[in-house]
Amino acid sequence: NNRLTGTLEQLRNLSVLNSLFAASNRLTGTLDPLRNLSLLVFLSVGYNNLTGTLDPLRNLSLLAYLDAAKNNLTGTLDPLRNLSQLVLLGVENNRLTGTLEPLRNLSMLSDGIQYLLLNDNNFRGHIPAELGKLSRLKLLFLHNNGLSGPIPTSLADLESINEINLGYNFLTGGIPPKLGQLQYMEYLILHSNNLTGSISASLANCSSLRNIRLSRNKLTGTVTQIDFLQLRSLESFSVNENQLGGEFPVSVYNCTHLKLLDLSSNEFSEELPDNNEYSQPVLRELRVLKLSSNKFGGSVPGWIWKLPELQVLDLSHNSFTGVCPTNLSGLEGFIRLEASPDNVRGGSNFIDNFIPVRVDGGKLLEQISIEAKGSRLELEYVLETLFSIDLSYNHLSGKLPHALGELRGLTYLNLTHNNFSGKIPEEIGDLLRLQSLDLSANYLTEKIPAMLSRPSLSYLNLSYNFLEGEIPTANAFSTRYDISSFKPGNDQLCGAPLETTCAAQDSDASGSSATLGAPSFELLDDTFWRAFEIGIPIGVVIVIGVVIGTLRTMPCARHWLLHTQDFARHFNDDDRHHAQKSTVENRWIKTASRVMRSNASIWRHIWRHADIRIGIERSIRNTSSGKRQDDSELLSIGSCLNCIRREKRLEICEIIPYRIGHLRRWP
């Protein structure tokens, strides 16, 4: 730690040197000057810029501690096969190659090795079964290599092991059930491999376990067989990106020190259990809860909104229903002001050279994947600085709670693709640390609150809603985002960055509605609906008369609406289509207009869906201008209008194939 430069050449003749500590400098060159230092016991030259191979260490028979991590060393482990006194072998983060075969001989010569740190190299081949003979081994780090084959069952004989990290390899087969006999093991890290089979219930016998990380494998089965009641020390449990299913493991409530629970990207289903059977709040130390991309349904249980230390909540891509609670005071972690986005940082975080993922001093270091700023972020955070809520792609409804404004530490908020309605709470503008806000694809109305113009907000998406009025201009709000933050949808919005000025929009709204040369959609605005509701008795008589008259003069109109299959055959007949093209288009226009007027209450509901409205309006505009419609597009619209008219409901349209613009969701 002195920023020393140069090489080790001047040490070549120090034949009685016993210890050399030169780590974390800027040394260059090779290890060759150490070749004749036969009395060397402690060698620490990690975190430099050394090159070459390990061959100069071949004859240092007394060497017990070798730390050469984080250099540019190459070659194989073969020069170390006879160093029988080694206690620590740390050559991680280099460019070493070959296999681990030299460890077979090393394990036969000595059982005194306690730390075997070979991670972040380019080793290939299988893990030697002989490693199970290292009875004093505490740390086994082989992650970030190219190792393949099964996990040796002999690793269950490492009776002193504290941590096994085999992540980021190409290991296959199952997780040996015998690993459950390792009573002193605190960390089992097997993520990012090709492991298959189920998770053995025997892991619950490892009562000292603090971190179980089995994510990104091909594991199947359930996790309910694990008796979490025995894992009282468990702080992190992540099995995301597997093929696990079944119910949520209720016994995890007993892990009172659990800080991270990640079950995302699996096939878990059913409703989440509530904790009514418990007299006290559960998981009071939980900071990260990721249940995204599963098949959970029902309402979000109350205990989730009462996790006092929660910082990352991700329930996205499920089928949750219900409303958000109006009281969020139980999320005390979001309310406290310790969090600051200025302190959020990515990259590798190490407490010390040996433990890359650790809970220490109240700080949780773990890899986290979140949806924010329009993309998925893979980050490794000190989690006391990250506060995120993601409820996107569910079926949540109701109004957005004003209590969101109390979550003052919130950094990312993603509620896209739900059924939220009403106005955007102005209290969201009180979130001074908010960097990303996505409320798109909901049914939000009224104006955009001026309070949203906080300069800290770097990403905003309000598209596919029904917002109206002028876009705020304070703090360069109107120029900070492009059109995609507001469009498609939000037809009544005006002002920069949209091309529509507010004055022009007002003028258009009060002008003629016949500009399209087709049925005008101005009849669906609020003024029309007020007039319509007042004149219902008169309107009913007129509509009935129009419908009866039309059906008498156009008998095939009813044929189209009630028999879409005949319509399809008619439309797919090329000869007849060319001969009757103008007639078909005129009939479609008149039919669509009549159905909209005679089923006004239904169209008033459907008109709240911007993506549906845009597709139909585009279809009629193209038809009226003489542009040939795609057959399936017209058929789909006709079929949908038919089912709406006949059934008085929208849900039935879910079974009808459709292809109109950006149609993505039916209510």
UniProtKB/TrEMBL annotation:
This is Uncharacterized protein. Keywords: Cell membrane, Glycoprotein, Leucine-rich repeat, Membrane, Repeat, Signal, Transmembrane, Transmembrane helix. The keyword tRNA-binding does not apply. SMART domains: LRR_TYP. The chain crosses the membrane at residues 528-551. One of its GO terms (cellular component) is plasma membrane. It holds the Pfam family LRR_6. InterPro entries: Leu-rich_rpt, Leu-rich_rpt_typical-subtyp, LRR_dom_sf. It is a single-pass membrane protein. It is found in: Cell membrane. Belongs to the RLP family. It comes from the Eukaryota. Its main location: membrane.
